[in-house]
Amino acid sequence: MRVNVISDVHGNERALAKAGDGADALICLGDLVLFLDYADHSRGIFPDLFGVENADRIVALRTARRFDEAREFGRELWAGLGLDPKAAIEQGVRRQYAELFAVLPTPTYATYGNVDIPDLWPEYARPGTTVLDGERVELGGRVFGFVGGGLRTPMSTPYEISDEEYAAKVEALGEVDVLCSHIPPDVPELTYDTVARRFERGSTALLDAIRRTKPRYSLFGHVHQPLARRMRIGATECVNVGHFASTGRPWAMEW
Fold first, then answer.
1. CA–CA dist 107, 15 (Å, integer)
2. How far apart are CA 46 and CA 191, in angstroms?
3. Residue 131 lies in a domain
4. Over the Cα atoms of the chain, what is R_g?
5. Domain count, the chain
6. 148-160 pLDDT, tens per residue?
7. Is 86 among the domain residues?
8. Is residue 89 part of a domain?
């Protein structure tokens, strides 16, 4: 059995179309949407609406962690555009979802990232795509558990939930062989982004579940350039499966 695992697609449709090559199934750990490419400020919903110069400025403010200024700048841009932000963003997300879900291989098992909009997924997920969040599936004799979304941050991305709600989803899984999530367990080496030079939010509930239930693997993404891509926590191999938007390469699991 071979399963290819990806995360943080962020609009890379061309690579996504080939992500399942050579595998019996594809697992996608979320963040299909590209709102703004921090490496190429001309790509994403934001520059489509406001242009590259404004994208340059919003990236600079966020990178400097000047989140209040970034939010105020964003409000000024929306006021000048004269469009309803929610409707305009949803229109861009819908365009991306239509393209991305259309190229997912069969079978695909997917959960949401923090920038995804879960309410829209049922409209675009085809019969060969199974969406799981706080749920389990058996593949090749191994039980995979899925936890989608992220925890609340100053960035206020679309699918951020409370620590309590997230922990309830982790608890609902029980014991699994492979624990799949968008965000990592709350370990400094796994949550620190070496390029952004900041800690992303990891989950203590995931970390507690790893220590308590000892899955074979904990698989995740979210942190694009982590201090450590792989480490062990007791009996569990923790793996950041990679920033698929930039690498275009899945992480493969065979047994």
1. 17
2. 26
3. yes
4. 18
5. 1
6. 999 999 888 999 9
7. no
8. no
